[in-house]
Backbone:
């Protein structure tokens, strides 16, 4: 099972945390008097804020920065300035952020990490957003005097009230969205590292390619798929269960703009922008990202919206990436066998390819012969029937290629059948 600690050591996640740390520490600034900036780290549903808070503090500690943690549920129903006074054990409650900073003095850490804002009531959460804004203004004022103020780092779900600060555009506040990570290529490597092998290497190959690609950037979904063989019906069942666990009903997805995202032509979402359809879906965890297709609706959100055809297309995309190179390898292997037969004109001497363009190409390069023409040539009753031992394999490859060319799914059993025949032909020479 892929854990959160596994995800945290992936390159894309490491880069994300390093960007946050560089802003909090001021090390990312090119100016001589680098200023520490405040950060709001927004996470979609499915990413644990406590895990992210722990990771950020670990990285800050590793860089020998003075840090402190404040969990807001420990200070219920109190004003932020009162909560901060209690946290720093002040005898009197200051009237402003400036007075608080002066009163705390050297006790104030370089970075104060704040978590749990989603667990307090809305009125208190709104008060905290106002305090964060005041803190940013104070940081700006002190920067104008050449002074440095401690940084606040708030880690929260994207659905929390703090997402409103993304719209404000404060000079000393950075918004960091958990987005575009992890990439399927990273989770495929993780998958291989885990004890997820099968006694059948071909089955492992299928699962290692198909399952991370369908999960895209959702590591939680990939963990759920780890118990799946890779058959289409099992994948769909897992997706349905995942959507139900997330409470992704048609009504919720439609209200967030899910239909809008999958309907018609649209510009692929690369970055999350405040106030957009993508932000609303992202905060639900219902948006995934891949380098090839950028932002898309989560595969588990498609069936609640009655988009079965779109889900099948996603599955088809993952199969194409695995199967077409294998099919082409079969085609080239059969062409190579015929090339070694001693007749350089075999691709057109005995029968002309039905496709006019192919008929022209194979005269210069017989390795461009297609599977359809190959299967006719090496048929037991064909012109090159002496090579008919390769006919069954070529037919299997041709049929699967034709299925994929017409956007139809290949079953796991058909793939395993093809791989079995390839293995048999390899052993027989």
Residues:
């Amino acid at each position: 099972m892929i854990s959160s600690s596994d995800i945290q050591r992936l390159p894309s996640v490491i880069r994300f945390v390093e960007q946050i740390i560089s802003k909090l520490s001021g090390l990312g600034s090119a100016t001589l008097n680098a200023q520490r900036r405040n950060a709001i780290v927004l996470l979609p549903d499915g990413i644990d804020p406590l895990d992210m808070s722990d990771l950020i503090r670990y990285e800050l500690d590793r860089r020998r920065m003075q840090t402190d943690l404040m969990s807001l549920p420990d200070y219920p129903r109190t004003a932020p300035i009162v909560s901060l006074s209690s946290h720093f054990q002040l005898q009197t409650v200051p009237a402003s952020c400036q007075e608080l900073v002066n009163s705390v003095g050297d006790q104030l850490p370089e970075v104060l990490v704040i978590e749990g804002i989603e667990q307090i009531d809305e009125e208190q959460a709104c008060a905290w957003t106002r305090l964060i804004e005041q803190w940013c203004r104070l940081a700006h004022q002190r920067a104008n005097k050449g002074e440095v103020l401690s940084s606040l780092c708030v880690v929260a779900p994207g659905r929390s009230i703090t997402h409103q600060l993304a719209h404000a555009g404060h000079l000393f506040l950075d918004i960091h969205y958990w987005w575009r990570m992890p990439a399927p290529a990273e989770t495929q490597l993780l998958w291989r590292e885990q004890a997820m092998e099968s006694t059948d290497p071909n089955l492992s190959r299928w699962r290692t390619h198909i399952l991370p690609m369908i999960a895209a950037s959702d590591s939680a979904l990939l963990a759920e798929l780890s118990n799946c063989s890779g058959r289409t019906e099992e994948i769909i069942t897992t997706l349905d269960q995942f959507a139900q666990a997330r409470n992704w009903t048609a009504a919720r997805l439609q209200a967030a703009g899910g239909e809008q995202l999958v309907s018609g032509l649209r510009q692929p979402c690369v970055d999350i922008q405040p106030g957009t359809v993508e932000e609303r879906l992202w905060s639900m965890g219902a948006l995934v990202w891949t380098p090839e297709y950028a932002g898309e609706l989560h595969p588990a959100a498609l069936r609640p919206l009655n988009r079965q055809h779109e889900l099948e297309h996603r599955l088809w995309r993952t199969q194409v990436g695995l199967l077409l190179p294998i099919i082409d390898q079969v085609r080239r292997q059969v062409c190579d066998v015929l090339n070694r037969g001693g007749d350089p004109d075999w691709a057109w001497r005995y029968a002309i390819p039905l496709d006019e363009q192919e008929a022209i190409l194979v005269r210069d390069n017989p390795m461009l012969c297609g599977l359809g023409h190959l299967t006719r040539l090496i048929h037991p009753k064909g012109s090159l029937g002496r090579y008919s031992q390769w006919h069954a394999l070529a037919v299997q490859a041709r049929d699967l290629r034709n299925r994929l060319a017409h956007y139809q799914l290949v079953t796991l059993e058909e793939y395993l059948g093809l791989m079995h025949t390839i293995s048999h032909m390899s052993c027989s020479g």
Notes: Confidence is low (pLDDT under 50) at residues 29-33. The longest strand covers residues 151-157.
